[in-house]
Design brief:
Blueprint (H helix, E strand, L loop, with lengths): L3 H30 L2 H12 L4 H13 L16 E3 L2 E3 L3 E3 L10 H7 L3 E7 L12 E4 L4 E4 L7 H13 L7 E5 L9 H12 L5 E5 L14 H17 L8 E5 L5 H12 L7 E4 L20 E4 L3 H14 L6 E4 L5 H10 L3 E4 L1 H6 L2 H16 L14
Parallel strand pairs: 3-4, 3-13, 4-7, 7-8, 8-9, 9-10, 10-12, 12-13
Antiparallel strand pairs: 1-2, 5-6, 6-11
Helix pairs in contact: 6-7, 7-8, 9-10, 10-12
Bound molecules: flavin mononucleotide.
Flavin mononucleotide binds next to strand 4, strand 6, strand 11 and helix 11.
Length: 392
């Protein structure tokens, strides 16, 4: 027989156990299901208590181990996009920098991204800059980073991409190539070895000449340097002995003068430098005057909302300068269906994001796709391709 006190204690213990169990199960299911409100109100505020690099590692862990449910709803037909010889079920991709080492391609694909760009990957492994090297600008919905290409190097990353390609339901994978900070090879050779290494297994390749955190890298966007670099890299791509030659893209910075933009457009329109696409754009070294966050003056590249309109203008400029002849992947500050639509109507065929995922978590992908589909239908478009460049 229990005494009255013991009975109360037992009942209390049961109550606490049931409440805790129920809460844990509810939280677990909400995370697994990608419940938007739960992420906004609980998960993301909690992750923001960690320093940004640790919270990124946590997100990578969740993606790598597929701790988020697969998006079961098929993408609306309006978002189906064909570019090069690839069929994208939707045009929203994860931008380079989130999965630098190619560890979470499958998890990101399951979350509902139409494609995943891994890297930047450098030929040899390198550690990147010393920490802290990434800063969250809470009040501005932005990030400043100066990672400086921390990379496991070609060899390790290659093995992981190869494994992903063997899967049945696999991600469309872009491989973003960077260069080592210290190298015995020339700049062009850094990229040429990347093309040779990943040419047969990448769905597309990107020459990243626009990260602000590797000394001298952005100088490769200058006319003569660019012409030399692209012609050498394209020559290497064309010499590949493989069943399919991967499309080759260049990723450019937003911090270019009108003159520099014209030069770049003229170079990539030349036959020997005719790339298959451009990614517009990387992070900016500029600091808009209305930034509010304390760490706004940290050195590095700024991404997220303050980059949004800068990037959209840049897309519109390149669409006009290249007469719509070179496909554009638009990236910078995309956090809603309207943002994605603006990039597309400025001239982008595909769209990428990074910072809004860091702030809002996986539900942002589903929401952007839903909103984009609604916008397209409200404007009478059957397919997203019809909206490309319509606001130029
Ligand atoms: C933390 C961080 C790391 C990044 N690393 C890379 C990188 O390694 N290579 C690259 O081409 N872009 C990199 N980017 C740039 C993104 O791919 C993207 O161009 C930029 O962040 C703008 O998009 P967003 O505003 O949606 O973040 C990085 C961005 C962030 C925030």
């Amino acid at each position: 027989m229990y005494t009255r006190k013991e009975k109360i204690a037992k009942q209390l213990t049961t109550l606490v156990a049931v409440t805790l169990g129920g809460t844990t199960t509810f939280a677990g299911l909400s995370i697994w299901n990608g419940n938007e409100k739960f992420y906004r109100d609980y998960v993301m505020p909690l992750t923001r208590r960690l320093d940004p690099e640790t919270s990124h590692r946590l997100a990578m862990f969740a993606m790598k181990h597929c701790l988020i449910r697969r998006e079961l709803k098929p993408d609306p037909g309006s978002l189906a996009t064909r570019l090069w010889d690839l069929n994208f079920s939707n045009p929203i991709g994860m931008a380079a920098g989130f999965d630098k080492q190619a560890e979470a391609m499958h998890g990101l694909h399951r979350t509902g991204f139409g494609f995943v760009e891994i890297g930047s990957v450098t030929p040899q492994p390198q550690e990147g800059n010393k920490k802290p090297r990434v800063f969250r600008l809470e009040e501005d919905n932005a990030i400043i980073n100066r990672y400086g290409f921390n990379s496991d190097g070609h060899e390790a990353v290659y093995g992981r991409v190869q494994q992903e390609r063997e899967k049945q339901d696999r991600a469309i994978i872009g491989v973003n190539l960077g260069k080592n900070k210290v190298s015995s090879m020339s700049d062009a050779e850094n990229y040429v070895t990347g093309v040779e290494k990943f040419g047969a297994i990448a769905d597309y390749l990107v020459i990243n000449i626009s990260s602000p955190n590797t000394p001298g890298l952005r100088g490769l966007q200058q006319k003569a340097e660019l012409e030399n670099l692209i012609s050498l890299v394209l020559e290497a791509r064309n010499k590949l002995v493989t069943a399919r030659l991967p499309p080759l893209l260049v990723k450019i910075a937003p911090d270019l003068s009108e003159h520099e933009k014209k030069d770049i457009a003229n170079v990539i329109l030349k036959e020997k430098c005719r790339v298959d696409g451009i990614i517009v754009c990387n992070t900016t070294t500029s600091r808009p005057l209305d930034l509010k966050s304390q760490c706004k003056d940290e050195i590095g590249g700024l991404s997220g909302q303050p980059l949004k309109d800068i990037s959209t203008r840049c897309i519109r400029d390149f669409y006009r300068l290249t007469k719509g002849q070179i496909p554009i992947i638009g990236v910078g500050g995309v956090a809603s269906g309207q943002d994605a639509y603006e990039k597309i109507s400025a001239g982008a065929t595909l769209v990428q994001l990074y910072t809004s995922f860091a702030f809002q978590g996986p539900p942002v992908v589903r929401r952007i796709k839903r909103e984009l589909d609604e916008i397209l239908r409200s404007k009478g478009y059957q397919n997203v391709a019809e909206a490309i460049g319509k606001s130029t």
